[in-house]
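Deliverable D2.4 — example input (structure tokens):
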């Protein structure tokens, strides 16, 4: 796997507005830093006290920077297409939209 530079527009010196999972840059008391995923509960980061979050970005924004493709061994698309073709007449009138049937 080739290493790539992914330019992240870090949010610094502020906290997220929405609770959720975020991609973060963390600094430890030892001076070392790392990337991680942390949950923000709406008031605080769910982490050890020894970790300082120095930057964050929403997971959606972070994943939007990556075009990872999809594993070739996953043949669910073929199964979905076959199922869709079998049930074509059941779903007339909604050809342009996406919906999930349980």
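Example output (designed residues):
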């Amino acid at each position: 796997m080739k290493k790539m530079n992914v330019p992240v527009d870090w949010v610094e010196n502020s906290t997220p507005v929405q609770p959720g999972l975020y991609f973060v840059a963390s600094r430890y008391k030892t001076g070392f830093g790392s990337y991680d995923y942390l949950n923000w509960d709406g008031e605080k980061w769910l982490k050890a006290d020894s970790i300082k979050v120095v930057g964050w970005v929403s997971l959606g924004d972070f994943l939007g920077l990556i075009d990872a493709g999809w594993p070739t061994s996953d043949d669910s698309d073929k199964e979905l297409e076959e199922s869709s073709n079998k049930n074509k007449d059941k779903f007339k009138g909604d050809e342009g939209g996406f919906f999930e049937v349980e």
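The radius of gyration is 20 Å.
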